[in-house]
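From the pipeline queue, job 12 of 40. The input is one protein chain; the requested action is below.

Action: predict structure.
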Amino acid sequence: MHEEYPQIIKEVGFDFSWDEKKVWLLNEPVSEMAISELEWHFDIPFLWEKGKYDLKPIEVINHPEAHTVEYERTLTADIKYPIDIMENKGRWLILDGLHRLMKAKINGIEKVHVRKIPRVRIPEILSD
């Protein structure tokens, strides 16, 4: 992982780079998960505002007027698509769908659709 990433991203993030378009192509079953299992993402600066990984989703959720670009991106997210997650360091980590998770939270949805991508699929999703 790159040196410029904040320590928290190095601690909780994946140790590989992936192509979300390759993730979308995977054929994995969809299941339901309580949003509470994924809410920990909201306290990690996974979003980019002025630089890489400098904005926490909870800041966008709680202060949309201060983060209009990310809030608009959240509101336009299409929650009909499942959130792609993978087990990483003992918990589920989002590969694709953070804005969909944020929108679900804003809309008061308690369960979301997810695709649990097995770690054995990592070679298939690596970015070129």
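Job complete. The chain has one domain: 7-125.
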